[in-house]
Amino acid sequence: MDTSFADGWxxxxxxxxxxxxxxxxxxPPVPSEIAVITGGALAAEGRxxxxxxxxxxxSASWLGDILVFQLFxxxxxxxxxxxxxxxxxxxxxxxxxxxxxxxxxxxxxIGLRFIPGGRLxxxxxxxxxxxxxxxxxxxxAIGGILWGCWQAGLGYFAGTTTGLPFWAxxxxxxxxxxxxxxxxxxxxxxxxxxxxVDEPGHPNPL
Length: 206
Description:
mainly alpha, 8 helices, 0% strand, globular
């Protein structure tokens, strides 16, 4: 493999992590996991610093969570409805809450981010439930660190155990994470069931 290609990715991955993880906070289809896993895979080849990857991922995760939390805590989510893309995001948020449940407990804020849409759902639900800013911020920080370690660890583990190029290790790590997340998501969905969401003072956009 052309080493300059891998070196180029190693230099660029730091700049991709922050916008992708921030974007994932309001739009889960953004493949933030891929960016962090790729960072871990590059670290396995010595082309990135795994701890810097985790730090950037955790920081962006925390900032994104705070943004969504404050949007709903301050009852400003209606601002999204001014634009077509905003209405799509707003509907997506409600769908995520309906699937993952409305739980705003501290354990949910930390743990549900590991299932598809769970991070967005718990941040919005915590804002609607008026969870304390200090409590949410702390749990979002803990969850962000654990999530960053998990995603980067998947890439690093795949890279060190398979010896494959970083892009192949990234795909393997992403596949493992997707399967585990999907299984956990099914278990949570069956346990909680679908949960309709009504924002105080704002009609349900669905």
